[in-house]
Design brief:
single chain, about 240 residues, mainly alpha, 10 helices
């Protein structure tokens, strides 16, 4: 600044121009370096978030696959229950039979993992993920799933209630929290299931349960496909 003041007093306008250019260039370079450093930091952050989003999406896909297996087995079990040879089916593996019987009344879906997306949204950092299509894909699958989930958790028939009314509590206790021996009273389980399927309301309840399970299979596969599309976008961005 002293040189500029001296040049002005001496009316050395060329020197003033040179000093001005130097100052402007210095400011420009400083701004560019700052912008470059910020961009570099943002890209590191973006990659870290993309890796976390990828891990969560893979976990969510696995959850959907597990639920697909559960609902497939549920539908097959309820469809086969009316003609099932109970004694042989139970005796072969009482604990496994009770597991299938229990799963046949399954009516819930777990929440999807979304910690990273919620962190980005709540902190105002969503723009760190530059791919707008990816941001939209993640938001869409999470919002659609959460909107539909409360509906999925409502059974449309009486199968679950009828099952647990027919099944002796002791048998269920032995299956769930037994002392390690597991299910022992095969005859009691067979009698309980026979009471269930002899109930005049059973056919209607079983039909409703199969319809519910088939509906769930459709939507679980739909959400899994959406998650797999999202995963492809995430992996392409890494």
């Amino acid at each position: 600044m002293k040189r500029v003041a001296k040049a002005i007093r001496a009316q050395d306008w060329f020197a003033v121009a040179i000093e001005f250019v130097v100052v402007v260039l210095g400011i420009f370079v400083a701004l560019e370096v700052g912008a470059w450093n910020q961009e570099r930091t943002d890209r590191h952050l973006e990659r870290a978030y993309l890796l976390r989003l990828t891990a969560e999406t893979r976990a969510n896909i696995e959850v959907m696959r597990q639920n697909e297996r559960t609902f497939t087995d549920k539908v097959e079990f309820v469809l086969g229950l009316p003609e099932m040879q109970l004694e042989s089916a139970i005796t072969a593996d009482p604990q496994a039979f009770m597991a299938r019987l229990d799963d046949s009344s399954w009516v819930a879906l777990p929440d999807l993992r979304s910690e990273t997306f919620e962190e980005l949204r709540s902190s105002g950092r969503l723009a760190l993920v530059r791919d707008a299509v990816l941001r939209s894909a993640i938001a869409t699958v999470l919002n659609d799933y959460r909107s539909a989930r409360p509906v999925f958790e409502r059974p449309i028939g009486d199968y679950r209630r009828m099952l647990f009314e027919a099944l002796p509590g002791r048998c269920y206790r032995d299956y769930r929290v037994g002392t390690g021996v597991g299910v022992a009273d095969v005859a009691a389980i067979a009698a309980a299931v026979e009471r269930l399927r002899s109930d005049p309301r059973f056919e209607a309840a079983a039909n409703a349960e199969v319809t519910y399970g088939s509906d769930m299979l459709f939507y679980v596969r739909l959400f899994r496909a959406q998650l797999e599309e999202t995963l492809a976008l995430l992996e392409a961005g890494l």
